[in-house]
What does this fold into?
Amino acid sequence: MRTFTIIWLGQLTSTVGSYMTEFALILWAWQTTGSATALALVAFFSRLLRIPLTLIAGLIVDRYNRKTLMMISDAIAMLCTSAIAVLYFTDQLQIWHLYLTAAIQGGASQIQGLAYQTSLTLLVPSQDYLRANSMNSSVHYGSTIFAPALAGVLFPWIGLSGILVIDWLTFGLAIATLLYVHIPQPEPQNPVALNAPIQNLRFSLNQVWKQPSLRSLLVLTTVFWFVHDLGGAIYDPMILARTNGSAQVLASTATAAGIGGVTGAIVLSVWGGSQSRIRSLLSSFIGAGLSKTIFGFGQSAEIWIPAQFCSSLNFPLMDSAETAIWMEQIAPAMQGRIFAANAFVLQVASAIATLMAGPLAERVFEPLFLPGGLVSKVIGGVIGDRAGAGLSFLYILCALTMVLVGIVGFNLPKVRTIEGSPMIGK
It folds into this structure.
């Protein structure tokens, strides 16, 4: 695990820097626009380039050196951070600049993430897949603990410009760790044609689709992440609207998410996970959905913080179990293409969700909860009728759908028996 741990430390440091910048830019965007749609569009544009790149990402990762791809992706992210810093220094930063850099960074992270994920199979023994994936989950959640707190403390002293410089330096550290290690490459089983992305996407999806258990799993996870990302796109504006733009409350919920995620990752690392990974996955769907339902009904940090902690507690198990299932069901030489094909489906669903979120929240659900309206009179006493109530109601509907996806999965025999399915590409 030595090589993996070195890479992991570099990614952890880089992610803390990136999340500090993300937190500061969210506050800047809300103060500038006050629009849920504007914040949701940042999430949408971060997914925009991922979709076409996913058509060839798996082919690239299966063909070219994965270490080099990860370094190039980090370098592109550094350039985007540099561009934001220059625009901010010269008082020219506008909201559309965030859309553009989010799109570029999203595309780069698609390649970087896939190269990193597919490298785990050759870096870590199979019995440690869950443990390694739980450590990867702690990168996100650990950064979520420290980044908002650090950004909140440092922002008054060094401003957005100083935080951007910190982000730039952490990217450099991540690249340095990659220079230090060796990442093995698998021997490709079949020639990979980069000039036929649609055909390769169709081939990869067909490999999944003809396996009933994997097909059912892909459909369930697509529905889950669609409603998850629909709710996630209105998460920040919901809190900011209900707290009069409080950065402190937003940071506290983010920190609670990080603590919950790290706690879940630590428990999973010590425990090692259940023998039935599919049961772990479906149980975490239900657990996350129930916690988010409580979060949606909340109107203050006293409810949001414990609910967010409980929600995030489920995601290391969820992510690790899902990744481990796919790693065991796909031969290493085909993982890049098939993981990319799955990512393509999820990215399309996520992009549609984030594009819908802002207009749906502001034009449909928020007006329903105007004081004196019918919906406000019926359930306004439960979730309130002030700004953000409509966002909360939409968030609750998304959370309940997540619970339903887990329940449906437990009642599908093809999903319950997935771990006994034959490996693709062996």
Q: What stands out?
A: The mean pLDDT is 81. The chain is about 85% helix and 0% strand. The first helix runs from residue 2 to 33.
